[in-house]
Structures are given as C-alpha cells and as structure tokens.
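From: lab user (bench 3)
To: helpdesk
Subject: output format question, protein + acetamide

Hello, I'm new to running complex predictions and I'm not sure whether the block I got back is the full result or only part of it. Here's what I submitted:
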Amino acid sequence: MGVSSFAAAPPRAAAGAELPALTPLGRVVPAPLRTEEGGAGYEITAKTRIRVGAGARERRVAEYLAAVLRPSTGYRLPVTTGKGEDGIRLRIGAGAADKALGAEGYRVVSARGSLTITSRTGAGLFHGVQTVRQQLPAAVEKKTEQRGPWRVAGGTVTDRPRYAYRSTMLDVSRHFFTVDQVKRYIDQAALYKMNKLHLHLSDDQGWRIAVDSWPRLTTYGGSTQVGGGRGGYYTKAQYKEIIDYAASRYLEVVPEIDMPGHTNAALASYAELNCDGVAPPLYTGTEVGFSSLCATKGVTYDFVDDVIRELAAMTPGTYLHIGGDEAHSTSHEDFVAFMDKVQPMVAKYGKTVLGWHQLTGATPAEGAVAQYWGYDRTGAAEREQVVNAAKNGTRLVLSPADRAYLDHKYTKDTPLGLSWAGYVEVQRSYDWDPGTYLQGAPAKAVIGVEAPLWSETLSTSAQLDFMAFPRLPGIAELGWSPAATHDWDAYKVRLAGQAPRWDALGIGYYKSPQVPWPAG
Ligand code: ACM
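Helpdesk reply: Thanks, we reran it on our side. This is the complete output you should expect:
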C-alpha cells in the first residue's frame, strides 16, 4: 500500500513538527471489499463543512460524525444543506452503482478538497463514517482538543458486508449492567460495523426486563445477581432508551428470554410456574442446568404468552430469542412440547424465532434461526442435528464457544472469564471461516456470526472491555469482510493499528503476545 499521496500536497504544519503517519487507505478493521489508492487525500480543517441533502438519514449520520470530530479537532464543522462541492459530503444515492452497495455498503472517495461518502441507506453511510474515523489519526477519538493535521489518504474504498447478521451479545443477567454501560458497549460494537445487539435479559440469577403483567419478575427476580449484589432491571422506558441508542448506531436489539431452562429468577418470583408449586430461593451462583419452567402446566403458557407479547410490543426488531440451551432439567419430551407451543407465540406477535442450537432438537419453526454455540468437543450427533436442520431450511448464526465466546480466558493466566471450551487466544478467535465451519451445512444457511459476552465473572465496563478487546473486532471482521481477505498475518497488523484508538477511547485491552502492538 502506498502512502505517498501527500507528496504533492504538503500538510500545513510548523516546520520541523512531527506529523502523525498517514494511515494507508483501507487499513481498517473490518477489512474492506476493495481499496483503490491514489491522488491527494482529504484534510479536515477549520473551514470544513459537512454537506448533506435534504434527507433526515444523511443529516442524522452527519450530526453523529460531527459529534465524533468536534471535540478533538476543535473545529465547528457545521452540517449544511448549502450548495458546494467541497467538504465532507454524505450522499444517499439511487443509481446503479449505488445499488451494488446493497443495504449496508458504502463508498468513500477521499480527494483534495472533498471527502464523499455514498450509500443507499443510513446504515451504509454510518459504516462509511466508521471507515473514515479509522483513517484519521487515533487522537481524533479523544474528547479534548488535539493537534492535527487531520488527513485521510487519497483514493476510493468500496465496501459491503459478507453477512447481514453481525452480532454481539451482552449477558445482563448474571451481572446487571446499567443503560450507560450498555450504550458504551453499543458504541464499541458500532465501531466495527456490527449491526445486532443480543441482550440476554433473563437467566437463573436475574430477570432484567419489566413485564407489566408479571411484576415480581423484576421487583423480586431482578433483585440480585451472581455473588449476591443488588442486580437491577430495565424499565420499559429504559429498554426503549437502549433500543433507540442502538438504532442511532444502526444496531438492532435482539432480546432473549431464555426458556425453559435458565429460569430460576422467574421460578423464584412465581411459585405457580414450578411443577411442585414451590418457589425456589433466588440464586447467586454460577451453575447451569438446574431450573425449568413446568412444561405440563397451562399457567406456564399464559406466562410465556404474556412475556412474549409485552416484549414483542416494545421491540421494533425482527427477532425474538427464546433461548433453549442447557435445559437439563426438562425432559426431551417436555422440551419438544414446550418449543412446539412457544414458537407460534413468537410468530403470533410478529417476530422471528431465534434460539440456541438445541432448538434443532425440537422442531424449529419455519423461518427460525438457530445459534450454534458448540465447539471442537461437541459431539458428532449434536452437530449433525444442526446440519440437518440447516439442510431443511433453518438458518444459522455461528458463535462457536471456543472461537467466538468473549467471556473465555485468553490463556490460563487470564484473571477473568471461564474456560470450559478451552482458552481462546486472539488468533484462535479470528482464524476460522463461518462459511465452512459447520461441515455439511449449506453455506447459504449461515446468515452471520455473533460474539457472546457472558458475565458470570464480569461486573464492570473495564472488565467487559478487557474481554471484548481485541477479540470483538475479529468476530466483526469475520461477519463483514470477504473470505478472500481472511489472513491472520495481515489482520494482526491492522488489529495492532487499532490500539492507539482504544487508548484514546479509554478501552483497556488484553495485550496479546500474538499481536505486534505499537511500542509505547
Ligand atoms: C450457552 O453458552 N449456554 C449458550
């Protein structure tokens, strides 16, 4: 990659002042589809304007970009519909070339005098903005005024995602995370062009979402967490705040109510949901597989219908995740009967079923998506069940535990996290192909990937940061970048280039010895 585009356009800087190295065009995570370097690039200056058309989507992304750039550059960066060919230009286009960008793609053209981001959609513009951020010096991410210059190398980036489903999950049940902590995590996922936030809203240790028709779920079932802390839950207004914030970063919230296992918090809140009619105590440990809704009681289905109805009504997205994992206290017969009754409820309230891959041990509803979380030691029969479901039309999201689980220890010395699926160093996390991972499954059944962040051992944002970084960007890249760009040796260099950005953003990350981090 050449970096000489500025030879003919010397940046304005005091003689002898040291300039930050120009980031080669396209050296971003996730790797873009196509990069053509050339020409003088663009420099953001005090005179830069952000030009938009009349549409609300262009303006919304422009205001977001301005809000990223203003504190560090110290420039006004007005957003304007005024005519002019200069400045940063955000365009939603409808021509044939734009159509090729698909629903989330974009083109960035960086030239002397103007930097243009074109897309068909607000999402595409937003992703283009993330690429531009990464082309600027890392100091652009700081919240106080920094010295420029703020240059972007010259040329064109044309980009669109490999998969439509690029997700990360946050477990807010084992430990509760506040709305602000969730927003911080959304911002981190958005940096790497993820477009789904799966919220694991219920488990044995806590019920975290208000359900008006069953209020004790939160007031009692949400009152603690792993280790016995205070827990917490989201009111409907707070859940909407999360959804709206995620939407402003073009992420769709996928809510999960895990059933019929992982339900102690609900069982403790309402005695009638237990087969023996006795409510167990609240649970603050980390065992799994000991709880089950009573699949043979009518009240169970009244309960589930109410929960799904209320959750669907407050969720604008397509999917509703019904869990289904580790139902070790539910008989197979009951599990199948439960899923047969519950999946139509999801459809009745207008949503698409998502479930952990154990759903394929029942009868997945038409159009359902199974989330595969097996790993190298998952038995052949279990894999085959998932593969057969995929052959029969069930779509797949892949989050193999020994690759994509962000809660797993990097090495035996990692102070946080679990290791039941093994250690997951950065290279292991990155070095697999979602298209061929599940042998025998049709490649077109795979709609994307997810990086789950379970929180048995995690209770602060700093801890989430340390486990998510640097692995989250790798799973994001598997979801976005063409398989042809997949190459650990090239990736680790691009990944290392992200570290100064994380420093500027206050993200503390694991300094894996596998990655050539910059000195200092
Ligand atoms: C899971 O890790 N139990 C989905």
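A quick orientation on your result: The domain at 165-495 is CATH 3.20.20.80 (TIM Barrel). Let us know if anything else is unclear.
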